[in-house]
Design brief:
single chain; alpha+beta; 2 helices
Length: 148
């Protein structure tokens, strides 16, 4: 038997061994960049859970959104519950108009689940900025007491 043969002895097909495409795991799949609303949901969660300071969102907000966050963040409404760090469960967005995304997310911390909604607007520089934030159905108004 010759050592330069690639097919088993006795095999007569001319194609030789067939290559089987490798199974692709999640790690091998190309990384899809996050959509703007997913990226903002993670950032808002970090601020409203006390993991990041409010000024972390300074260049990413417009209008009253920064004031809303600055008023609410000290009370950390999405903070840890019984030692469980809050995590983003789901985040979905809809585009009611060009350059606008209205999104909602569910946040879990221990056995509690909270809802968060926010609005993003795309500026002339093509950057997305948060324009409004709501938690659990209550709008976060600057100067108003936060939900307890």
């Amino acid at each position: 038997m010759s050592t330069d043969r690639t097919r088993p002895a006795g095999r007569r097909d001319p194609s030789g061994p067939r290559s089987v495409p490798p199974q692709r795991s999640r790690r091998q799949q190309p990384h899809r960049p996050q959509r703007p609303h997913q990226w903002f949901a993670e950032r808002l969660l970090a601020v409203l859970s006390g993991q990041r300071p409010v000024h972390w969102m300074l260049g990413h907000t417009i209008g009253e959104a920064y004031d809303q966050l600055a008023e609410l963040a000290p009370s950390t409404p999405l903070g840890a519950t019984r030692g469980s760090r809050p995590v983003l469960r789901h985040c979905r967005g809809a585009q009611p108009a060009t350059g606008v995304v209205e999104a909602f997310a569910s946040i879990a911390a221990g056995d509690r689940v909270r809802a968060m909604a926010f609005r993003l607007e795309q500026g002339a520089d093509q950057r997305w900025r948060c324009a409004a934030v709501e938690l659990g159905g209550e709008r976060l108004n600057a100067g108003a007491p936060g939900p307890r």
